[in-house]
Structures are given as C-alpha cells and as structure tokens.
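Q: Two folds, back to back.
A: First:
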Amino acid sequence: MARRSRIESFSNPLVKRMRLLREKRHRRAEGLFLAEGLRIATEAREAGVLPLWLFLAEEGAAHPLAQALVEAVLASGGEVIDTTPAILSKLSGKDNAQTIVGIYAEPKTQLADLDRDAAPIWLVAERLRDPGNLGTMLRTGDAVGAGGLILLDESTDPYAVEAVRASMGAIFTQKLVIARWEEFLPWLRQGSGQLVATWLGADTQDYQAVRYAAPTFILTGNESQGMPPEYAAAADVRVKMPMMGKADSLNAAVATAVMAYEVLNQRRNQ
C-alpha cells in the first residue's frame, strides 16, 4: 500500500538495505538500482518509470517537479520517505548528495523483447568498461533517437550509481540489454539489420563513404583493446574515422556519437 513516512536514523533497516545497492552483487540480488537527482527522477517519470521508494530531503520536496513526483509515486503504490541530507549521502555515497534519491526496479529486457524496427539506430558496445562511457552512449542514443544500447560480454554494470548518473536520465528512455556475442549475432541475423563495426583493417571504409541501411547497429569495441577480429569480420561493413592529429583513436563513446550522428544525418538528408 502506498504510504509516506519519515526516516532520520542511519540504523533504519530500509536505509541499511538500500545503501547496499551501491554494490553490484546486492543490486543483482535485489533486482533494484539507485538513481539520484530531481532531473533524472523527472526524466524517469516522463518515460513512465517510477521508483518503488522515493527518498527526499526537505529542501528538495518543495520544488513543483518534486511534488509531482511524490504524487505519482504515491498514486502508483510506491513509498515516499522524507529524510535528511545525511541519509541521502549515505545512500548515494556522495558527500554533496542530491536532494532526491529513487530506488527503481531493474528492467529485465532480453534481445527477444526488442522490436528492431522501432528505431533506425541501435548502439552495440563490446566489453565496455567505463561507466562514464556507458552513460554517454545512452545519452547519445537518446539524442539521435536510437532504440537502445546492447552491451556485449563482460561490460561494466549499467545500473551502477556512476553509470546511472552519467546517463542523465537516458537509462530510462533507452532500451538496455545485456547479452553475449554468441546470443547477439544469431538474433541479429534472424531479421533486418546492418551491423557496422568501427575497425581498422584492410577492407575498412571511410565512415562517410558508406550508405547505411535501417536499422543500423553500430558496434563499438573495448576502450583499450578494440573488438576481437572475428566480431569485426562478422559485420556487414567496417568503417573508420580520419585522425588528423597524433592520437591514434577516439574515445569509445565519442566514436559512437560520431557514427550515430552520421547515420542520423544520412537519414535526414534523404
């Protein structure tokens, strides 16, 4: 039943339970994750996603968007907890915590759940390790109207506090799937979809010389090692971006953004 309560004690069982969500094993065990900040919580609400528990400090509760969020959470059967900035810091692990922290159910989206034709662009990242890059890719996907992000193999946890924070709310607007390469490639080949790998090789083409077909799946490799050769070989086309300076590669999230906007611009100019 929906209710509103107040918690001011660090020893409260719910506070102890929720602060453990900063650790991956507890997130997996609970099927929950934490998102902080009014902006992210509002993005989630507008995407139709509400927290199961909403913690908020007094200074944040007066904002009209916070009031709308509280009403929505209570109407959905969630729990609103008025608390202190110190408790919010304990939950988020930050000294200067935001005035709102939401606890959300982790989506369990699978490849089979995706409608590949629902969007012209999909992002695919292989062994992505940096939560900041993951969050930036989600934001890029939201910006270009992508359907979502497919994380392959041993990638960083997308529901870590750092990744959720870096997504700036896009984790709620983009489909997110965690899969193995051995699962992804057969699924892709069962339907439409052009797989485009960012790759340096003998048959690599300039990224602006290729005509991209929808839906386009943009595959980006690991930040430091790139992708395995067999992954690149399985792609329909391999592309590269010119490097005019001394650096030999772009940041993985930046390269993904450049590619995504090229695909978007081709569609806009058709």
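A: Second:
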Amino acid sequence: MIKLKYLPKSVISFLFFSAFLFILTSCGSTRKLVYFQEGTNRIDSLPLLDPYIPSIQKGDVLSVQVTSLNQQATAYFNPHSSIASSMDNSVSGGSSVTVPKDLGYLVSPEGTIELPLVGKINVLGLTTYQAGEKIKKELSEYLKEPTVNVRNMNFRISVLGEVTKPTMLSIYNEQITLTQALSLAGDITVFGRRDNVMLIREVNGKRTFNRINLGNRDLFASSFYYLRPNDVVYVEPSKAKGTTVDRAFQVLPLILSVASITVFFLLR
C-alpha cells in the first residue's frame, strides 16, 4: 500500500486538488431528474381527461375479423387471415422472413374498404367500433349473428433520443399515454432532458413540434398526455452528456499523468 508520507508535498497537493475538482464538476442537481413536480397553479389534484379515441383516416390499414355461427361461411369474409396462413406454411423453417398474421384492408383515398361480396364500405372518420358495427350490419344479410372486430394496424408511436431503448410501439388497444410510451422505452436516461421533451404530431395536414415539461404535473391535463397515431416522442440530450464525454477525455490523461508521477517518485 502506498503511504502518502513518502510522496512529495507537491504531488499530494496535486492529487487532492484533482480529486476535489473532479467531484465538484461531477455534482449535478437531482431535482432536474424528478417527474411531476408542483404544477404552475400549485394544485394537488387534476381532473381526469377523457381517453383519446382515434378515428379512421385515409391510408390506414384495418384488421377486420369476422365470426359467426357458420364457420365455413365466415372464412369467406376473412381472406387476409387465410392468405397469411398459407404464406406462413410456405416459409421454410430456417427462413428469417416475417409473415404478417393479418394483411388488413387499406383505406382508400375515398375513405372506403372493400369486403368480399359486400363491396365498398365507407369508414372514413369512424372509430373502429363504429366501423365494426357498420360492417356487421352489412354482413347480417349473408351471415347468421355475425360478430365483427376491427383494429387499426397503423397506430404506431416512435420514441427516440435519450431513452434506454429507442423503439417503435404498435398500439393494438388504440390508447396509450406519454408516460406509458416512455416506460415501454425503458424510461429517460440520466442524460435526457425531462423539461424539454419534443412531441411531433400531424394535425390537419401539418406537422407540429410541441415542447413538454415532464417535471410539471400539468402534463396530466394536457392534450399531449394521450398519444395519437404516428406521434414521435424525442428526448433531447442534456448538456451534461456532452460535458461528461468531454470530461472523460480530459480526466484520463490527467489520471495517467498522476500515475506516472507517482510511480516515478516511488521508484527513485
């Protein structure tokens, strides 16, 4: 074990000064890492928002699953599922090809989808539940007690930037909040800015860029709390990340220099 009394005073002073400087520059405020602090109006409760319910838009891909008492007749109205099944069977066991389980119906520029025998059905602006009820009414002419389940396969959210696992999320229940999306991405890293998260959203043919402060509990009353299809959540890196990287390059030569000086005096 190296004893400090064997080292020159100048080396000891240099070591203590270097350690003090490193600790001083490494300290940061943990308050910046805390979510949902007091809101601007300093209240301890907020009214619950009504869940966001998306409507079907042009270019969406809808999964339409039909069931009825007659399974043989029902299969005729589920062509995409049978096609996907046949494609899946034709793929060799060693292949890395991913076959979709439901190819879905593309909503046309006119806002319609086309079902076998039934023909075109306008679903533009409807919720998936309303679309299912409309399709069910049309199928009642051909099937006995049909049940229709419609899902929007285009409901995807991207989470990028300073999160543990940048990812694209497919939302099958058509409801997700900003906090849930960040949780699924592994949360924001210590180097991410919680006070300036960017939410990129398409509204009325325009792409909007919105800034959100996660340290403020007013988020729960915001229109950005519930995410919408094609939303992009971007977490900006803080200055601390750049400083940490720069400091690593600065401190490493310093440590090597101190080690070299120490070894030099010990071997004299």
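Q: And?
A: Confidence is low (pLDDT under 50) at residues 82-100.
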